[in-house]
Design a protein that fits this description.
The protein is α+β, with helices and mostly antiparallel strands. The protein has 2 domains: 71 residues; 53 residues, Beta Barrel (OB fold (Dihydrolipoamide Acetyltransferase, E2P)), CATH 2.40.50. It is built from 5 helices and 4 strands; from the N terminus they run ααααβββαβ.
């Protein structure tokens, strides 16, 4: 597996390394079939490692990251539905609440995301516009509110 030297730091679980290797081999095959130069191997490997560091562990999505754009974009069609990303990232926050995005309101630099968590309850998060774009957040999408707070306050009326 030619990508293995880049994964020796111990930062990745074995199943993530397997997914990275699968994506790497598929990317090399596509590049070879399209006549791309051999020097692209390192670029492809670095793109896969970067995507895996952000928590991506699906071989198809790693392949898209390696090639620089999605298959739909390569074919001249941009899918309107956001992608579901399987993540292998481990986080220290223990409060992850599933919900559905009600709306996304972008400001100049920060956006507000309202997440319906059921039972008439809504969680609102402020995140950067860049994060909105990277996560491809859209109304109706399934998402999680991940809450990590250093302080918890109690108020009474």
């Amino acid at each position: 597996m030619p990508i293995r030297p880049l994964t020796q730091s111990g930062a990745f679980e074995p199943e993530v390394i397997a997914a990275m290797s699968e994506a790497f081999e598929a990317a090399l095959k596509e590049l070879q079939d399209s006549g791309q130069p051999e020097g692209m191997r390192e670029v492809i490997a670095n793109r896969i490692v970067a995507a895996a560091r952000f928590g991506e562990c699906d071989p198809a999505r790693l392949l898209e990251a390696a090639l620089g754009k999605s298959r739909s974009e390569q074919n001249g069609f941009v899918a309107s539905a956001p992608h579901q990303v399987e993540t292998c990232m481990k986080i220290s926050a223990r409060n992850a609440i599933a919900g559905t995005v009600l709306d996304v309101t972008k400001g100049q630099t920060t956006a507000h995301v309202r997440l319906d968590i059921g039972g008439g309850q809504i969680i609102t998060a402020s995140i950067t516009n860049e994060a909105i774009d990277e996560l491809m957040l859209a109304k109706g999408q399934k998402a999680h509110a991940v809450i990590k707070a250093s302080d918890v306050m109690i108020a009474i009326a």
